Amino acid sequence: MAKKRNPEMKGISRIDAKGTHGWYVRIYKNGKTYSKLYSDNRYGGRDKALTFAQKARKIALDTLKSLPENNVRRLVSHDKRNKSGIIGVSRTTKTNADGDTSVYYQVTWSPEKGKIKNRQWSVRKYGEEGAFKRAKEFRESVMVSIYGPDYLNQIKERLDEKGLDMVHPDEVVPPTTDKE
Q1: Residue 43, SS3 per DSSP
Q2: Computed from CA positions of residues 104, 110, 140, 160, in that sequence, does the dihedral angle turn out positive or negative?
Q3: Is the pTM of this model over 0.70?
Q4: Is the dihedral of CA 80, 85, 87, 90 positive or negative?
């Protein structure tokens, strides 16, 4: 059976290294790390240093709770695993219980932190190019609604920083496939 952790010790760890003995407090908020070492020597021994560390952790948590959440979202501009040419658009094949396969283009996006949504367009219904075109247009409109009208320029700047060329979504064609 797993040992239960004491919630008062979350973010507090013991350091016993040559020349350094104490309790290290670490708190994460909005992508930043706040930390401090409570030395046994400075705070009057191991137990007193732990008491100071726990009190400091509680005060820091109460203080940081009042800070607004940072809702800055990560903008992904390039992924070497991407095969469709557009981040968030993929060609997917599903096989049902009868063995029939369905091929479609799927768009995946995150409307808010912690939520993932997706939508598909059937290759059988729209054709390869039609399904791909609908998917990439939808992806672009969703991204503009999330990041604002300057979305394509933001992507271009990120790619330029990485030394990569940007292909406008209108220039991307569906990937060629060997299987159907």
Answers
A1: helix
A2: negative
A3: no
A4: negative
Can you spell out the DSSP letters for 111-173?
SSTT--EEEEEEHHHHHHHHHHHHHHHHHHHHHHHHH-TTHHHHHHHHHHHTT-----GGG--
Q: Pull the structure tokens for residue 47.
A: 């137990």
Rg of the chain over all Cα atoms, to the nearest angstrom:
25
Mean predicted confidence (pLDDT) in 67-96: 65
Three-state DSSP state, 11: coil
Q: What single-letter amino acid sits at 2?
A: A
Mean pLDDT to the nearest integer, 56-76: 69
DSSP for 52-116 reads HHHHHHHHHHHHHHTSPP--PPP-----TT-SSSSTTEEEEEEE-TTS-EEEEEEEEE-SSTT--
